[in-house]
Amino acid sequence: MTLNHTLRLALAATSLGFGLTFAGAALAAPDLVLRYNAPAQDNDTGWEKEALPIGNGRIGAMVFGQPGREHLQFNDITLWTGDDKTMGAFQPFGDVLVDLPAHASGVTNYRRTLDLVRGVHTVTYTHDGVNYKREAWASYPAQVIVLRLSADKPGRYTGSVALTDRHGANLAVSGNRLYAAGTLAGFVLPDQAPSTNVMSYASQVQVQNDGGKLAVDGKRIGFANANSVTLVLGAGTSFVMDPARRFEGGHPLARVTQQVSTAAARPVDELRVEHERDLGGLLKRVELDLGPTLAERRALPTDARLLAYTREGGDPELEAQYFQYGRYLLTASSRGSLPANLQGLWNNSYAPPWNADYHTNINVQMNYWPAEVTNLSELAEPFFGFVNGLAPVWRQQTAQEFKGKDGAPIRGWTLRTESNPFGAMGYLWNQTGNAWYAQHFWEHYAFTRDERFLRETAYPMMKEAAAFWQDYLKVLPDGRLVAPQGWSPEHGPVEDGVAYDQQIVWDLFNNTVEAAGILDIDPELRAELTNMRDRLAGPRIGSWGQLLEWLDEKHDPVLDTPQDTHRHVSHLFALFPGRQIGPVKTPELAAAAKRTLEARGDAGTGWSMAWKMAFWARLHDGERAHRMLRGVLAAPGARAAEQGGIFSEHNNAGGTYPNLLDAHPPFQIDGNFGATAAMAEMLVQSHAGEIQVLPGLPKAWATGSVKGLRARGGFEVDIVWRKGLLKNVTVRAPSNDGKVKLRYGAWVTEVELKQGQSRTVSASLFK
Ligand code: FUC
Predict the structure, then answer these.
(1) How far is CA 732 from CA 685, 718, 735, in A?
(2) pLDDT tens digit string along 507-529?
(3) How far apart are CA 402 and CA 285, in angstroms?
(4) Distances (CA, A) of 665 to 292, 346, 605, 638
(5) Pocket residue to mutate for ligand 1, from 358, 363, 415, 419, most atoms within 8 A of Cβ
(6) pTM
(7) Which tens digits make up the pLDDT trace of 100-149?
(8) Which atom of ligand 1 is found nearest the CA of 664?
(9) 354 lines ligand 1 (CB under 6 A)
(10) Ligand 1 atom index nearest CA of 357
(11) CB of 359 closer than 6 A to ligand 1?
């Protein structure tokens, strides 16, 4: 058998595998396809709420699916205005427009889908007796976006393709390729300061016909009587994550040309199969079954299904789909380049909300909450590269603003609330941003047990963040240590010892001590950080049983009262994603956290509801966590009426758009990622030195299973439950030996595994 033959068989087996898993499986086969009976409106509203996202982690597109004119509004995650001093904004790149004038009317059987495992957007419809099909995907291996137009009768495609550019590039056509190449030098938005940005960029579309004819028609490529048409889109910029080169890595034209030429020379099915295999390798690691949905509900298109769920709940398959959507979105917006921004990598506006930037006080962190626990660990790497790459710029800005004790220079760096990919920062300082980022480095080790990463990447970063706080913490007269002049995000005064800062510094010191212990280095530093951790002013309970948000209880008409429903609940960091407070470890403080959450209420922005879902999961209240899921996975504002009042502006209208993207509002992707992570947290927790299974299982998920979640210690966990009770749990140790305590409610058991082994423990073995 030739190599080629073997490869083809292997590819055939892969697609067969998909068929078997999804068509052949009994009962609740995972329903991982978003479906719509109408195209997205081709305007700003349609872009935000209806169009569907594809992406390969670096380039991506919103797909609209109009029969008469397909529109791929595309982005490259690095196309930013601004520089290391000016914020700028994440930019739209351009559009690919495919006009099919004859299809503008008379279409029947219209259907638009997004398959969350294959990563393929499909449009099908019938026109004049012909069944048409369009497939679009963004390939990571090939680094291009492909749009394939096919039909069940020959010679029926007549239309044209145009490429647009949003920053005045030179457009050219040559042969069957459209070219755009330009620069952001001199491009200044009306309300933004000029910058030194000289980023260059290029995009290209190759148009290939099977049958019929191609002809250049002005700036478009026309096709007539083709059987099928394939478009290959490439795009890139000169951005490189290197302040020493002023982020300029050379013109992308040659690279983009090469990517498009290489991909266009390959059979399109081979590109698709390669893409599906690649993506499946990430997405199929986790399977989630929360129980079956009634057939009538399942048959609804996704937009109608979301409305039905908003009203009545009762759709566990939609909930599982929403969980997997978060994982899909991470693969699509966080691979091989910059980290996912406030909109992942999708943006059609010159001035997107908050510049679609990297917000440091919850948003970028929340984007990465699902990475480790949902078995997509490598997708956190763009975030680590971003932090390490920009640290030199952040160090300079930090040194200008902060001094250590007695005016001495301060070590390390920290962050303001807003930041861009060149190191510029804006808005108030978010002083513990450094320590919160450090948590992600630590967790990557905790979940993967990658000791080399700990030694070479995580520990040095954590140690530097700890050095900042060693230099900067202030001693109160009673000996307690406090973070000076901090802000509980974006709420109340700037002052010493706010709970958010205190808890995050505690987390940093605690993790750094543990890391040094594992690496068996820096004994004096370990002793010092242990001592400082224990002297930090700690969480305290206030007069109405709440966890205090500031060092001392406020006597204020709103702040620190049961009427304060502000969207940020930052002083519960210690509960999640921290591990200083928990119902077993610190029951009184956990009760205070609960009191606070009850007062804060269940409505909020998208991300606020997702965070609250995770808090309730950590409090082991699966019903309440599920109630939060009913709020975040709901038509935007469905919960708003529950919570009016003083702090209601923009605070209570969160939810989910028909395309299942999170509504802050407006569209902001953190809520998708946070909700996915919080759902995982309802099923397995591992922050307390043991793996706890089903700590927050709601009644709505009576019978189900999950496969492939990750737990700290380097484990993979599968869980099967029936009628609300654990049936069995399987633990695997893919990359290291390990011994771990398993907990189910009050019962525990222990397993010890060699690398590569797995053990299934039935519920009856827990004691
Ligand atoms: C934080 C939040 C806002 C919004 C913004 C992008 O500042 O307080 O609600 O999510 O980030």
Answers:
(1) 15, 9, 9
(2) 999 999 999 999 999 999 999 99
(3) 45
(4) 30, 15, 7, 12
(5) 363
(6) 0.95
(7) 999 999 999 999 999 999 999 999 999 999 999 999 999 999 999 999 99
(8) 10
(9) yes
(10) 6
(11) yes
